[in-house]
Design brief:
Length: 474
């Protein structure tokens, strides 16, 4: 088999992960449309089931890693159980029992989402491609969300049930093919592209305590200790993810639906999520060229300006004026939507990464349920003004936090050390040609003095030590 075919096979598991994220997003999008039409408190029980599943799986993985002291790359086995739950969900949809179907759908969505993002960040090399890969996974997830939201029809649950069943059977077949490719050595999905991570994982040193990690660098002159900011950055990442959850604000969603009907004279309820998905795809492309800090700064400022414009031009009788601004609002929000998740995954301790992903997704689900209560207020402009101002303030705070605390993407072990306050001291580069070609002489360069000789020649002479000077004197 040629090198080209080897590389294609090696990326098969990564493409499979993106496809599974699409299926997970499809479930969530279908539920969001359902909960919008049937707005009652009973819908909260589905979200509670999904959050409990996320926390149970996250805690279980954390305990398993603590016991084994290794990351065992069991993500595809968990995804398999998630797909089986999705098959059961689709079977209930085929018999029009959506109430039971959503319980299995939320369990499947939680397991697949957690396993996929837990796998994506490990497969990235230390050259800075992790933001792009996480943004690509985020795009695939919300593309499925948009498709599920657009295909929902309260009178045709069987149609979506057949589609979901077909998707899941296809994913299960691809999982079996993936295992065969791994078994016959056409690919190896149980390794990371980060070689240092693989070495520590093989030696069972990956989940060592922070105190043990710091003890390895005590007494070394080429490293310096600074303040430990790991848990501070993790806490800030949750604030950034809270700002991202404003996507589900029912005030802006209802305004978008009304403005779309006024501008296009047709109801495209999925248009807001379509703009958001296009923004995710644009952000994924920009991650290949620009740093996440710059992308977040630019498009978060655009979001603030657009939100201010919507609040200024809003008029109950001319909603079509807000249409283009609302499209740009969701587009700009989608561009930087993966930065918060990237910050959380890269800064979290290795032992608690899956648990942190589970908590973040649970908070997103809870936020989506809480935003439903915005519709209980009768005066629409008051709730629009309050939500718009709170969104602007939260986005401003997020911009400041991102610019100060978002670490530059690099190798996982190096990022872990830097967050713990362990930094490698830079090696000084000297202009003196005598020492520029020898690394060991760069570490401690003795002072030299210039002696001018005839014909404009210069001789670099080592001055004697202080003790030698005294001996020479006497």
């Amino acid at each position: 088999m040629t090198l080209h075919h080897k590389s294609v096979m090696y990326g098969f598991c990564d493409l499979l992960i993106l496809s599974c994220l699409f299926v997970s997003g499809f479930n969530y999008g279908y539920y969001c449309k359902y909960s919008d039409i049937y707005d009652n408190l009973w819908n909260h029980w589905y979200a509670v089931c999904g959050c409990l599943t996320l926390l149970i799986v996250g805690i279980g993985l954390c305990l398993r890693h603590y016991k084994k002291r290794q990351f065992l790359f069991e993500n595809f086995y968990l995804i398999f159980y998630g797909l089986i739950s999705n098959v059961i969900c689709s079977c209930f949809m085929l018999v029009d029992d959506t109430n039971t179907a959503f319980y299995f759908g939320f369990m499947a969505m939680a397991v697949i989402y957690l396993s996929c993002f837990s796998y994506i960040y490990l497969r990235c090399d230390p050259q800075g491609f992790r933001p792009f890969c996480l943004a690509l996974g985020n795009t695939s997830n919300f593309f499925g969300f948009t498709i599920g939201f657009a295909l929902y029809n309260e009178f045709e649950a069987k149609l979506c049930g057949w589609l979901l069943l077909g998707f899941n059977i296809l994913m299960i077949l691809l999982l079996i093919i993936n295992e065969f490719l791994h078994y016959y050595n056409y690919q190896n999905y149980k390794i990371s592209f980060d070689l240092v991570y693989n070495l520590l994982n093989d030696e069972k040193l990956l989940y060592a305590s922070n105190r043990s990690v710091k003890a390895l660098f005590i007494g070394r002159d080429d490293y310096v200790f600074k303040r430990n900011t790991q848990y501070l950055v993790v806490a800030i990442a949750f604030i950034i993810l809270l700002e991202k959850s404003s996507l589900y604000s029912y005030t802006f969603l209802q305004l978008t639906w009304s403005a779309t009907y006024a501008y296009l004279h047709s109801q495209y309820l999925y248009l807001s999520f379509l703009c958001y998905t296009i923004g995710c795809l644009l952000g994924c492309v920009l991650m290949l060229r620009y740093k996440p800090k710059l992308i977040y700064l630019q498009f978060a400022v655009i979001k603030i300006m657009v939100t201010s414009a919507i609040l200024l031009i809003y008029n109950d009788y001319f909603l079509e004026k807000c249409f283009l601004f609302l499209c740009l609002y969701y587009l700009s929000m989608g561009v930087y939507s993966s930065v918060g998740l990237q910050m959380l995954i890269e800064s979290c301790p290795f032992l608690y990464t899956e648990l942190a992903i589970a908590i973040s997704y649970s908070l997103e689900i809870v936020a989506m349920e809480v935003y439903k209560y915005e519709t209980l207020i009768d005066d629409f402009y008051i709730i629009l003004l309050s939500m718009g101002l709170s969104t602007i303030c939260l986005t401003l705070i997020s911009i400041i936090l991102i610019l100060i605390f978002l670490p530059n993407s690099k190798g996982l072990i190096e990022m872990r050390n830097n967050l713990l306050g362990i930094y490698r001291q830079p090696v000084k580069h000297y202009t003196n040609t005598l020492h520029s070609n020898n690394y060991f002489l760069q570490l401690e360069v003795p002072a030299t003095s210039k002696v001018f000789i005839d014909n404009n020649r210069i001789f670099h002479q080592y001055p004697p030590d202080e003790k030698d000077k005294q001996i020479t004197k006497y």
